Amino acid sequence: MNTSITTPAEAWHRLEEGNARFVSSSSEHPNQDALHRASLASGQAPFAAIFGCGDSRLAAEIIFDLGLGDAFVIRTAGQVIDNSVLGSIEYAIDDLNVPLVMVLGHDSCGAVTAAKTAHDTGTMPHGFVRNLVERILPSVISPALPAEPTVNDMVVEHTRQTAARIAEQSHIIAQAVAAENTAVIGVFYHLADGKAELVYSSSPEITAS
Fold first, then answer.
1. What is the DSSP string of 160-188?
2. Which positions are annotated as binding Zn(2+) (predicted)?
3. Which of 15, 154, 197, 208 is the most exposed place for a label (fewest CB within 10 A)?
4. Residue 29 counted as an annotated binding residue
């Protein structure tokens, strides 16, 4: 278990170190042995909750070189928030006492691309994909975007907006952030080189390196 990691900054430092190992092809694959697996049978104590896109190339445990019991992971296409996501994060904070919540987006995101296409063409997708697109559209038309924004600009904006919205929509998360027991960060993952880039932080102690 990860009882030694108790602050948001410590949790982010651990994730940064793991990502650096992954980028340099020196992953240690920690906490994946049979003994550790057995030790987790009676309970868990993850040091981070990671809410990321469901893209198959965005496996958080791999890109941050984590093992069993290290992270409480939630995923939806385009890291779109709904009540189940908020409830899951609240559980991670209230019951598992995680000191860090990460929103994890990535370049060339298909869900954000679909939202951009819907905006550009005026045609919404069918089925429940429409629900995803509708929740991403505020990031596609955000005034904070640069002139002639790319899909990746929109992903970064969506990641920032999602990270900020988590605390805005949940008083449980907001209270934990205000008490500095938990921080919420937004991270943009680069598919080609594997680098995880910090793009949002609710804590002044967590900044881009």
1. HHHHHHHHHH-HHHHHHHHTTS-EEEEEE
2. 53, 55, 106, 109
3. 208
4. no
For the stretch 94-144, pLDDT in tens is: 999 999 999 999 999 999 999 999 999 999 999 999 999 999 999 999 999
Q: Is 106 annotated as a binding residue?
A: yes
Specify burial of residue 122 (Cβ count, 10 A radius: 0-12, 13-18, 19+). Answer: exposed
Q: What is the pTM of this model?
A: 0.95
Measure the CA–CA gap between 79 and 7, rounded to whole angstroms. Answer: 24
Answer yes or no: are the C-beta atoms of 69 and 46 closer than 8 Å: yes
33 annotated as a binding-site residue: no
157-170 as b/e: b if 16+ CB within 10 A? bbbbbbbebbbeeb
